[in-house]
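Quick review question:
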């Protein structure tokens, strides 16, 4: 008796308004679970009656190629008047602790037990054993239930003196639920009355709730039914033996998985994307923005999954930001039969981490057949799953069963299955380790595993899991594709690649001390947000809007964004101030020139990048504090002029020198007026003639042979004939003349 744990709970009822009257009316005219006070039954006797039919399933799990099995089960649930544990265990912990993972089971015959379906791929399970009354048997899957989260295991030898459950669907109430579960460190039973509360669904379905996995019995412990879903429909279909439930045999499952493999090979393809190398400054390794980027800004190749939407269109599950998509050069679609075809970019989905591409040669196979009914119709049903992994040119797929046990309300009130559709994070352009595709038994694709692409003001830089987006929503999207594409997230020419939005201001990040001095502690969250305008460029959007130095920029309210964009700039030390760059320049070896940081701040920061991603032409309103008063100014996201990293440049192979045009922020740093000549040295090659002549990075070339140089193109034209060149070089305020001799063959 002390081995049987029971939980005695008094059942109370209350009459509250019309809802209870409705429940009473429904129960009177139907086969709902009628319930008397729980105290009328001996709960300990009920547990004792069930105990001889209970067993424990032990799964010995294992790592495969360094991969952990993950989790079995879904955690803890509480249902009304009954407490119950759904089996949950971290398999990696079980392996570490050298023990099996355990699950509750009931005998249905001397050699058959029913237990929750672990939904774990067979490669992770090295053995299954069932323990009953001190007897241990090896087990294997016998069948999978169609509408209940359970499977039937058959042991290799019938248990001796077995006491299987015998169900009597005609037994009247009151009913009780028995839950066999792990309490602390011991297996035991929880017995509780079945609540008389009813749930009425929008379609009119009426059901009672019990703990998932509950065995429903009468007052004498006679089994009436078993619910692995936590629901007992009012029509009484929950009653009776699980042996009468619709099920798929293990052999039938193997056949079904083979059919899905054929469909997946046609629908789910391998994609290769090629990107040109990023065009950037020759020395941006110290650029503070580089440490805030998504991690994929240097990507030159992407391999992942795609889904054939129709014979001409493939959906590519690449979650790329505009800065990366801008460099996209080619798309190649690889089919399971070894053939491939090129594809052209057709658009990036604005709400999901995916893009569409048009096949150069129509696909010979059939496109994906999406399940277009509400996915809630598939709850608890047996489904099939393809776990697709792409690594370079390798495509690996694992096939198994799966289910959708619950749902949640997601973006724009979409009803989404509460299932993970990926293994690992999808971060920036890096796809999760695998993507899970679910299929109905008749071969329809339930949905697509996609990352939600949040709008700029609410995006989460930590990445996100792929979600199963039901086919009904994707079908609507594909029917009106143009309305769901982001015009700003597309391939760009090399000249356009580094375009940036600008306000035309220089900003000082806020901190707690500055917030206190300027009396904006609350407005800036104690200095965590906001920035002080330290300079306004003439003829800029800020200048035209009347922004003044000393204004405090708080946030931007952007049309079409769900929340304001907080102005958050990260403080960093200007590397030119960390050491006296210019006085040390002559002491820096040539091999370290590429590591010298640019001495002015970068114009690309999280604010300008966010505005660029929002899109040029988008209206927004800036919240500003000026002299202690709150004001607003209206703007339109405007493309800024060329800046250092995007400036036109010229590389002289003969001189071992690269120069760029002077841009607005560089001219401000050197205090050079717009009409003054000069180009800036952006790179000096080790061993080149420029390095030997003593030219250093970030020096200015003002003139060649006495002629002013106003642009990189002008310098190219000046040295093109070859010969001896007297080059006027300026370092800050100090000038000098250096000589370089170039043969015509060395000139451009």
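Suggested answer, residue by residue:
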């Amino acid at each position: 008796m002390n081995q049987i744990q029971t939980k005695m709970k008094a059942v109370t009822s209350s009459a509250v308004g019309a809802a209870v009257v409705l429940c009473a009316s429904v129960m009177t005219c139907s086969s709902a679970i009628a319930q008397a006070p729980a105290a009328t039954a001996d709960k300990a006797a009920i547990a004792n009656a069930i105990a001889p039919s209970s067993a424990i399933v032990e799964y010995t799990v294992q790592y495969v190629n360094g991969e952990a099995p993950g989790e079995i089960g879904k955690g803890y649930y509480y249902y009304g008047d009954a407490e119950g544990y759904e089996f949950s265990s971290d398999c990696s912990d079980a392996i570490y602790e050298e023990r099996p993972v355990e699950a509750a089971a009931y005998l249905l015959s001397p050699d058959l037990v029913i237990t929750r379906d672990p939904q774990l791929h067979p490669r992770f399970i090295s053995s299954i054993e069932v323990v009953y009354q001190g007897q241990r048997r090896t087990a294997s899957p016998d069948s999978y239930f169609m509408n209940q989260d359970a499977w039937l295991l058959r042991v290799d030898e019938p248990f001796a003196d077995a006491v299987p459950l015998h169900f009597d669907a005609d037994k009247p109430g009151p009913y009780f639920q028995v839950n066999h579960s792990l309490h602390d460190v011991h297996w035991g039973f929880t017995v509780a009355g079945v609540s008389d509360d009813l749930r009425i669904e929008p379609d009119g379905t009426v059901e009672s709730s019990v703990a998932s996995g509950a065995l429903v019995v009468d007052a004498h412990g006679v089994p009436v039914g078993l619910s692995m879903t936590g629901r007992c429909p009012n029509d009484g279909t929950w009653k009776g033996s699980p042996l009468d439930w619709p099920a798929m045999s293990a052999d039938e499952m193997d056949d079904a998985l083979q059919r899905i493999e054929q469909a997946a090979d046609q629908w789910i393809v391998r994609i290769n994307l090629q990107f040109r190398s990023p065009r950037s400054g020759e020395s941006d390794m110290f650029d503070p923005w580089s440490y805030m980027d998504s991690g994929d800004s240097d990507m030159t190749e992407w391999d992942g999954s795609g889904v054939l939407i129709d014979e001409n269109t493939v959906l590519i599950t690449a979650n790329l930001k505009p800065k990366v998509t801008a460099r996209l050069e080619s798309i190649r679609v690889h089919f399971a039969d070894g053939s491939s075809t090129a594809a052209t970019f057709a658009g990036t989905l604005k709400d999901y981490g995916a893009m569409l591409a048009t096949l150069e040669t129509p696909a010979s196979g059939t496109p994906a057949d999406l399940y277009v009914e509400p996915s809630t119709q598939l709850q608890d049903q047996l489904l099939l799953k393809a776990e697709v992994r792409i690594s370079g040119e390798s495509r690996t797929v694992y096939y198994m069963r799966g289910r959708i046990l619950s749902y949640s309300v997601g973006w724009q009130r979409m009803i989404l299955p509460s299932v993970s559709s990926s293994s690992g994070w999808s971060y920036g352009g890096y796809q999760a380790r695998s993507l899970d595709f679910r299929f109905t038994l008749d071969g329809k694709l339930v949905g697509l595993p996609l990352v939600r692409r949040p709008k700029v003001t609410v995006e989460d830089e930590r990445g996100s899991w792929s979600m199963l987006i039901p086919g009904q929503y994707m079908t609507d999207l594909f029917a009106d594709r143009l309305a769901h594409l982001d015009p700003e997230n597309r391939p760009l020419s090399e000249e356009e690649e580094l375009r940036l939005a600008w306000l035309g201001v220089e900003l000082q990040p806020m901190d707690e001390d500055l917030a206190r001095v300027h009396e904006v502690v609350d407005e800036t969250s104690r200095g965590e947000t906001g920035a002080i305008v330290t300079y306004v460029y003439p003829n800029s959007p800020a200048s035209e809007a009347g922004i003044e130095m000393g204004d405090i920029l708080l946030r931007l309210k952007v049309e079409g964004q769900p929340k304001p964009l907080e102005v958050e700039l990260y403080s960093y030390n200007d590397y030119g101030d960390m050491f006296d760059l210019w006085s040390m320049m002559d002491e820096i070896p040539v091999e370290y020139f590429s590591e010298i940081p640019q001495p002015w701040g970068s114009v690309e920061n999280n604010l300008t990048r966010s505005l660029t991603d929002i899109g040029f032409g988008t209206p927004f309103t800036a919240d500003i504090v000026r002299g202690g008063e709150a004001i607003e100014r209206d703007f339109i996201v405007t493309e800024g002029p060329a800046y250092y990293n995007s400036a036109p440049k010229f590389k002289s192979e003969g001189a071992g020198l690269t120069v760029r045009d002077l841009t607005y922020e560089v001219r401000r740093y050197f205090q050079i007026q717009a009409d003054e000549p000069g180009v800036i040295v952006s790179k000096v090659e080790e061993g080149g003639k420029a390095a030997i002549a003593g030219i250093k990075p970030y020096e200015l070339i003002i003139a060649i042979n006495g002629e002013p140089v106003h642009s990189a193109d002008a310098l190219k034209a000046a040295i093109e004939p070859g010969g001896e060149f007297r080059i006027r070089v300026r370092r800050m305020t100090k000038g000098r003349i250096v000589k370089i001799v170039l043969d015509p063959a060395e000139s451009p």
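Why it works: The chain has four domains: 43-245, 258-486, 499-570+605-639, 649-741. The chain has 14 helices and 45 strands.
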